[in-house]
């Protein structure tokens, strides 16, 4: 009996540490605004890099011709071709293929990685069909999106700042605002794009005069796309727990990408694993022995977390299966399984509320968090990434939080659109809007 009571009490304490961390989101949004200002004021002014993308002309919809794109993400890359029909023609044809990156290349040299990518790209180009047509005298142009922190030095050159998301590569170049470009091509009211996948990042359209660190000529459009690298946002207002600190300390990039480590797909499963491990150690949550598999970092992946979270069966049969298949835990009671689901809920809720807070920060920064003209004002956020796409509880919580933070009236002017494969199409569109043949 004592063991049971102790188990419940300590389990409650372990979980409470995380619940306490589902904190005041509006405070985090305000902290994001402060850091956005600081990052725009000077290079190195904030952990939030606020990189100037040098993109001042997002696609207009009038682009025409055949363009390619390559999108290197966390665990895979996509190559794609699009045929653009020009004014009113839209996206006439598109085709893509997704290639997973062999784990050995994730920790090798960038040369080996890029050789592999180039070979896969060549294969894809060789399969170009009749429905794609290259205008005479033109060569194929390629947009390259790269979902890692970079400093852009001009439209065609970038310097990689740091590998994240489990990659560790010594030398390489490059990043992305492709989703924003793709979103803008489809919906003219897009002001920002947010990726929630293995990692997380956001880009938005800023007024050119609101970028004190920019000393060049102001663009005609008076607009400039800012690649926030928001994964690296950090603030004393972020609700970091002992689990977050421990995971960060043991990560490839301690002290970096703190926001990403709270909200993105790479980490949510691992946070849950860490809490479960503590519960097993301190509260015999899974019986007298701590399940050995539970001690393996990253064994619990975010798709497993979402599968358990979405288990609607009354006896939580899927949770039972996941615990058994992944952690070799076969004796978990229904009560225990319910606690596991609640823990998934807490960790996902925290992440998704923080992601929503980040967006509120952007909306505040560009003055779209209030309504000036109810009839005319429309604000669209383009979203992409596997976490956003597949984790529906996360996604629901994210939209609810945003509505809650914005209030009913402002919410009506804001919509979230899924920009499917937006970043790849976006890269092709940017290749088009910056074509050498223009
Ligand atoms: P990447 O970010 O790796 O370029 P994606 O945008 O496709 O690629 O995102 C993949 C990530 O999305 C995975 O690492 C995982 O964290 C998350 N994810 C994929 N499927 C699911 C799922 N069913 N439930 C929750 N998260 C998922």
From TrEMBL:
Its EC number is 2.7.1.-. Residues 192-432 form the Hexokinase C-terminal domain. The keyword Transmembrane does not apply. Keywords: ATP-binding, Glycolysis, Kinase, Nucleotide-binding, Transferase. Pathway: Carbohydrate degradation; glycolysis; D-glyceraldehyde 3-phosphate and glycerone phosphate from D-glucose: step 1/4; Carbohydrate metabolism; hexose metabolism. InterPro entries: Hexokinase, Hexokinase_C, Hexokinase_N. It holds the Pfam family Hexokinase_2. One of its GO terms (cellular component) is mitochondrion. GO terms for biological process: glucose metabolic process; glycolytic process; intracellular glucose homeostasis. GO terms for molecular function: ATP binding; D-glucose binding; fructokinase activity; glucokinase activity. Residues 27-180 form the Hexokinase N-terminal domain. Belongs to the hexokinase family. PANTHER family: HEXOKINASE (PTHR19443), HEXOKINASE-1 (PTHR19443:SF85). This is Phosphotransferase.
């Amino acid at each position: 009996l004592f063991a049971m009571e102790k188990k419940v009490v300590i389990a409650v304490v372990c979980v409470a540490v995380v619940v306490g961390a589902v904190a005041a989101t509006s405070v985090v949004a305000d902290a994001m605004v402060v850091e956005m200002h600081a990052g725009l004021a000077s290079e190195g002014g904030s952990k939030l890099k606020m990189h100037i993308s040098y993109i001042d002309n997002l696609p207009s919809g009038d682009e025409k011709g055949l363009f390619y794109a390559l999108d290197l993400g966390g665990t895979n890359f996509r190559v794609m071709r699009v045929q653009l029909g020009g004014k009113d023609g839209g996206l006439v044809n598109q085709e893509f293929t997704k290639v997973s990156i062999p784990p050995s290349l994730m920790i090798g040299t960038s040369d080996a990685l890029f050789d592999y990518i180039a070979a896969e790209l060549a294969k894809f180009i060789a399969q170009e069909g009749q429905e794609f047509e290259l205008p005479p005298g033109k060569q194929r142009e390629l947009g390259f999106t790269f979902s890692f922190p970079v400093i852009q030095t001009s439209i065609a050159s970038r310097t990689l700042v740091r590998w994240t998301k489990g990659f560790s590569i010594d030398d390489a170049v490059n990043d992305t605002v492709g989703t924003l470009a793709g979103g803008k091509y489809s919906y003219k009211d897009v002001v920002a794009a947010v990726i929630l996948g293995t990692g997380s990042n956001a880009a938005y359209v800023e007024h050119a005069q609101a970028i004190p660190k920019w000393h060049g000529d102001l663009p005609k459009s008076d607009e400039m796309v800012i690649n926030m690298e928001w994964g690296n946002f950090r603030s004393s207002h972020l609700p970091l727990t002992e689990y977050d600190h421990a995971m960060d300390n043991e990560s490839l990039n301690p002290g970096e990408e703190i926001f990403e480590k709270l909200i993105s797909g790479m980490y949510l499963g691992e946070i849950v694993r860490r809490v479960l491990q503590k519960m097993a150690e301190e509260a015999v949550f899974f019986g007298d022995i701590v399940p050995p598999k539970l001690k393996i970092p990253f064994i619990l992946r975010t798709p497993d977390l979402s599968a358990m979270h979405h288990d609607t069966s009354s006896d939580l049969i899927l949770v039972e299966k996941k615990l058994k298949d992944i952690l070799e835990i076969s004796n978990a009671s229904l009560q225990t399984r319910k606690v596991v689901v609640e823990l998934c809920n807490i960790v996902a809720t925290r992440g998704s509320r923080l992601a929503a807070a980040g967006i509120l920060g952007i909306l505040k920064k560009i003055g779209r968090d209030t309504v000036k003209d109810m009839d005319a004002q429309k604000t669209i956020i383009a979203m992409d990434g596997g976490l956003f796409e597949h984790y529906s509880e996360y996604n629901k919580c994210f939209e609810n939080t945003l509505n809650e933070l914005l209030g009913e009236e402002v919410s009506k002017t804001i919509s979230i659109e899924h920009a499917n494969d937006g970043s790849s199409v976006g890269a092709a569109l940017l290749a088009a809007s910056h074509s050498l043949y223009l």
